[in-house]
Amino acid sequence: MNGPTTSISSALRGKRMLAPMVRIGTLPMRLLAKDYGADYVYGPEIVDKRIIGCDRIVNELLGTVDFVKKGVLNFRCLPSEKPHLVFQLGTADPDLAVQAAKTVAQDVAYVDVNCGCPKRFSLQGGMGAALLYEPDKLIKILTNLVENAGVPITCKIRMLEEKDATLALVERIINTGISALAVHCRTRDMRPTDPGKWEIWHAIAERFGDRIPIIANGDIFEGDDMDRAFEIPGIASVMLARSAQSNPSVFRHPEPRLPIDDVIRQYICYAIKYDSIYQNAKYVLMQMDHDMKSDRGKKLASAKSLRTIAELWGVEAEHDQLMTEREARRVALLAKKATAVTVEDENVSGSKRPASPTPLERVPTTAQSDALGHIDWNKDGGVESECPYIPNAPYIPKKRKTDAGDGVAVDPVVRNVPNGEPAATSATPAPSQP
Ligand SMILES: Cc1cc2nc3c(=O)[nH]c(=O)nc-3n(C[C@H](O)[C@H](O)[C@H](O)COP(=O)(O)O)c2cc1C
Q: Cβ(71)–Cβ(54) under 8 Å?
């Protein structure tokens, strides 16, 4: 039996966490949650095969680290996020899990295994909550990760129907040597609207809270709820999903939440700065706590560029400034690289020849995305695989080719349209509850 990774385990006490949320937990939301006081921020669940084989590319233009495969951006993070960033993995295979974790290990604080997703895609693939009912497989996955991934491992579970069975499973999970356990206080078959059963936290935390940080998740909506959860003996940390989705300034507690429009403006600026695709920004904003039936809400629903979205919240000047700055940086970087390559070429061959493609050119952003290829979601496991939490609302409509949701605009609709409206429209899925 392995012992937990002590340093991260002790760091995971007394913390507030942004829960993993597909489509929501991309870079702008993570930055915002952190600004407002979240201690750890989870990215959206990413399935092992999607991250395995990605090139890790330092995007000098944006200052990000991008994980790109076949021209598609699958995950984007900032180096400064590393101490508090959690990569959440969807997996059903011990070896693929390790390969996936190794791919991101150097850029994250720890890797979390999703053992709670109740959606059809996950269950059919033996992932998410299916692992709770195949404990031998789950234990193999966790053990292999703990022993071989080179990064601390945690997992996030739902409770089983019976308390004793839940406790027995938790004991086995903890014995693998994982660093923390997040417990969503619902069973696989409970609806998000069914009241969460906080009593399971009491039972788990009482029994295991001194061995490992237990992270409470489910129905923590207000600051007061965070306080109450922390009062449960043995509960180490709290994790919020839907309340943070509505207004991430909930993490400011005991300070009051900020007015949602202030939060949205900041979100939009991060989305622009880190080159989110407008579809993702729009989706996230549509989940926030404002009136979608208002004139502005309706305009948001039909917006087709970040510029339009920025106008709706009066930050178009910030948009233009950020784009101007980025373009200046791009030109400066290209000039620098061209000089460097020319000098190098002269040294090698004694004659000048055109600069070869640089990483900067290979990973362009909205303004220069020609070099990026596309993905056929149907070939890659199906759209639903990318959005297990949003049934009936495919992440990207089938046959449409776009990025994987983390920001780089490879959508042919958007690309080559640096600052303005795209030439054509594309559908954005309607929001729905997971
Ligand atoms: C939009 C959305 C996406 C979610 N995506 C994930 C995910 O990728 N991985 C995961 O483990 N849970 C996911 N969940 C579940 C949440 O992390 C959390 O367990 C659940 O919503 C209960 O917490 P809450 O009551 O604070 O919302 C998602 C929830 C929502 C609302």
A: no
Q: Which two tokens stand for residue 44?
A: 């959206």
Average pLDDT over residues 70-77: 96
Q: How far apart are CA 64 and CA 62, in angstroms?
A: 5
- DSSP for residue 151: S
> Taking Cα atoms as reference points, which of 159, 178, 304 lies closest to residue 218?
159
The pTM of this model reads 0.83
Share the mean pLDDT of the chain.
Answer: 83
What is the pLDDT at residue 6?
A: 66
Q: Could you state, in order of their start, the residue ranges of all structural domains in the chain?
A: 6-252
Could you list the active site residues?
117
Q: Which of 214, 212, 207 is nearest to 182 (CA)?
A: 214
In the chain, the amino acid numbered 399 is: K
Atom of ligand 1 nearest to the CA of 45: 8
Neighbours of 13 (CB within 10 A): 14
Over residues 269-284, mean pLDDT: 97
pLDDT at 28 over 70: yes
Crossing angle, helix 260-273 and helix 278-287, to 10 degrees?
A: 160
Which residues line the pocket of ligand 1, CB cutoff 6 A?
A: 19-22, 24, 44-45, 88, 114, 116-117, 156, 184, 217-220, 240-243, 245, 389, 434
d(CA 77, CA 65): 5
Contacts of 36 (CB under 8 A, 6+ apart): 248, 249, 250, 251, 252, 258
Evaluate if residue 389 carries a pLDDT over 50.
Answer: no
Q: Give residue 371's pLDDT.
A: 27
Specify the pLDDT at position 197.
97
Q: What is the DSSP letter of 68?
A: E
Render pLDDT for 231-244 as a digit per residue (tens, 0 to 9).
999 999 999 999 99
Best CATH choice for the domain 6-252 from the list 2.40.128.20, 3.30.70.2740, 3.40.50.620, 3.20.20.70 = 3.20.20.70
Can you tell me whether residue 73 is helix, strand or coil? strand
Q: Whose CA is nearest to atom 12 of ligand 1?
A: 20
